[in-house]
């Protein structure tokens, strides 16, 4: 497998909000495919960098992701240059219908690699399998940090810290009480008894409260754009979220009296 001429390679392009969060390095033949799709779905709360060559080791941090779109790279693009990066970052390989060179198969076998299949139809529709998988992975990482912000601001939640973490890590999966029950492996009755000690009379009241406290923290401390903060905490319909919060405040008022701030 030959190596591309790096002397004429374009410098990396960067999109997104600068933060301490992991960056995503997109290696592709051009900016119009995967990089563009990720820019639409992830820009604003994750740093995206475009490369048409192997990223430099100095430019990749230990927490970063390197996503290689094999469907857009020329056949002669060398895989061997990525091996050293596996010691510092996680490698994602995006594959299509074409056979994958053995060198990439070897890299894919490493524990720090992941393969995401993306057919022609999915690529035309915006690389949905890739963007969704990356968003889920990024949400889990961001969720851990967000949970810490929530617990720091509202220590009353510390007795149920694992529940707070699950809601923050899986904001779009935890929509109803049964969703939280499935993730915890508990019965809903058990969750109700646990949350009753905090003053929540219904599990859904607790879920919406954690979600809105998380939203407040992203806005107040992280200074994220409104639309980005909503997406990170799983708010798809702001009007419905406010309605749920109003209902929770009315029916689980005892819990709200313990909060440092009353979420709006």
Give the topology, please.
Layout: E1 13-15, E2 24-27, H1 34-42, E3 48-51, E4 65-69, E5 90-95, H2 102-108, E6 113-117, H3 120-124, H4 128-153, H5 161-169, H6 177-184, H7 188-196, H8 203-220, H9 226-233, H10 238-251, H11 253-256
Parallel strand pairs: 2-3, 2-4, 4-5, 5-6
Antiparallel strand pairs: 1-3
Helix pairs in contact: 1-4, 4-5, 4-8, 8-9, 8-10
Describe it for me?
The chain is 44% helix and 10% strand. It is α/β, with parallel strands linked by helices and 264 residues long. The protein has a 6-stranded mixed sheet with strand order 1-3-2-4-5-6, sandwiched between helices. Helix 1 links the parallel strand 2 and strand 3 (48-51). The termini are far apart.
Question: Which descriptors apply to this entry?
Answer:
264 residues; alpha/beta; 6-stranded mixed sheet; 6 strands; 44% helix; elongated; disordered N terminus
Gyration radius, to the nearest Å? 21 Å
Overall structural class, as computed from helix and strand content, comes to alpha/beta
**Sheet having the most strands:** 6 strands, mixed
Shape: elongated
Oligomerization = single chain
Report, as a whole number of angstroms, the end-to-end distance. 58 Å
Helix proportion range: 40-55%
Helix and strand sequence: EEHEEEHEHHHHHHHHH
Unreliable residue runs: 1-11, 14-20
| Helix run count | 11
**What's the β-strand tally?**
6
The overall pLDDT average reads 86
Proportion of strand residues: 5-15%
Strand order of the largest sheet: 1-3-2-4-5-6
